[in-house]
Amino acid sequence: MTGASGFIGSALTTALEARGDEVIPLRRGGSGPGPSWDIGGGRIDEGALAGMDAVVHLAGSPILPPWTAAKKRRILESRVQGTDLIARAVASAGTRVLVSASGMDFYGDRGDTPVDETEPKGEGFMSDVVASWEGAAAPAVAAGARVVHMRSSLVLDGAGGSLPLMMLPFRFFVGGPIGGGEQWWSWITLEDEVRAVVHILDTDEIRGPVNMASPEPVRNRHFMRGLGKAMRRPSWFPAPALLVKAALGSDAAEAMVLESKRLVPAVLTRTGFRFSHPDYDAAVRHAVREGS
Fold first, then answer.
1. Which DSSP symbol is given to 105?
2. Most exposed residue of 127, 160, 170, 200, measured as fewest CB within 10 angstroms of its CB?
3. Are 95 and 48 in contact (CB under 8 A)?
4. Nearest C-alpha neighbor of 100 from the set 3, 195, 192
5. What's the rounded Cα separation, in Å, for the pair 224 and 149?
6. What is the mean pLDDT of residues 2-7?
7. Which of 268, 288, 286 is nearest to 152 (CA)?
8. What is the DSSP letter of 256?
9. Helix (H/G/I), strand (E/B), else coil: 290
10. CB pairs under 8 A, 24+ apart, for 235-240?
11. What whole-number distance in Å separates Cα of residue 145 and Cα of residue 97?
């Protein structure tokens, strides 16, 4: 597993080990024991994937703003170069399964339109990044591996990811809808994200893109109101789009908070996955409680 010590990776490692799986982290730059890799140098330890049943690839440079030209280059290169390196290693080792991180930004701004995994690519910087990111897994696909691209939505957890940043304004009684609040936000709890990854690993028929999102997306206004209620804080203080763009930069603001993405988890639903937290209001209460 790459990114095993990260937000999702650490929770996934715990879940896999709890059911008896052995998780071997692929470490960067040779730090610590075990196999390592170097994205910039295009190197991975020989035999690192030998005997592995599956590879879960989660590593990638953070996308937090500001998005300078150099930051955009790191966002793209870390994903494309890293995935290409892993995919070639998977092909060489004959590993049967590659489950790779991806993102819902593939779809771009889709307004009120529900989008399942058959929808085409959208427009914008992050949409281009995701398309290139997924395309970098081509060597593993060509070698016959079962390759899955996890198009993750906003992962809810009160102790990690982006939710604690969203909670901060509410702590000072200045939380509220962003940019008008009508854009759709797709989300999933950390618990369901991890359970979905395990489901993907165990389900041979799943390959290609998978929307990692609850079946009940909500508008931003609803999202913020539910977060405020969970924190016992008001949600009356709006953040206008111009203010958000000034704070984050126009490109980052559009991609991260202002665009509307109403994901449908068609693949997970079709293959029998059952969400533990399908309802947003109950899910955000759970996330806030677990993080406190």
1. G
2. 160
3. no
4. 3
5. 29
6. 95
7. 268
8. I
9. helix
10. 235/170, 235/175, 235/176, 235/177, 236/176, 237/169, 237/173, 237/174, 237/175, 237/176, 238/176, 238/177, 238/178, 238/180, 238/181, 239/176, 239/177, 239/178, 239/179, 240/179, 240/180
11. 5
Beta-carbon contacts of residue 163 (< 8 Å; ≥ 6 apart): 154, 155, 156, 157, 227, 287, 291
- The whole-number average pLDDT for the span 253-261 is 95
Report the length, in residues, of the chain.
Answer: 292
Read off the pLDDT of residues 19-75 as tens digits, 9 standing for 90 and up: 999 999 999 876 667 799 999 899 999 888 999 999 999 999 999 899 999 999 999
Q: What is the pLDDT of residue 290?
A: 83
Please enumerate in sequence order all residues whose Cβ is within 8 A of that of 87, keeping only pairs 6 or more positions apart, or say none: 98, 136, 137, 138, 139, 140, 141, 147
DSSP E strands: which ranges in 116-185? 146-152, 154-156, 184-185
Residues 157, 116, 82, CA angle at the centre, nearest 5°? Answer: 65
Within a 10 A sphere around the Cβ of 202, how many other Cβ atoms? Answer: 11
CA 187 to CA 166: how far, in whole Å? 13
Domains of the chain with bracketed CATH: 7-291 (3.40.50.720)
User: If we measure between CA atoms, which residue out of 20, 19, 44, 42 comes closest to residue 34?
Assistant: 44
Taking the CB of residue 105, how many other CB atoms lie within 10 A of it? 25
Please choose, from the candidates 38, 47, 2, the residue with its C-alpha nearest in 3D space to the C-alpha of residue 23: 2
Percent of residues in the chain assigned helix, strand, coil, to nearest 5: 45, 15, 40
* DSSP letter string, 27-81: EETT-SSS-EEETTTTEE-TTTTTT-SEEEE------PSP--HHHHHHHHHHHHH
Has this prediction a pTM greater than 0.85? yes
Q: How far apart are CA 183 and CA 258, in angstroms?
A: 7
User: How far apart (Å, rounded) are the C-alpha atoms in residues 96 and 212?
Assistant: 22
Tokens of 23: 């998780």
Q: Do the beta carbons of residue 230 and residue 290 sit within 8 Å?
A: no
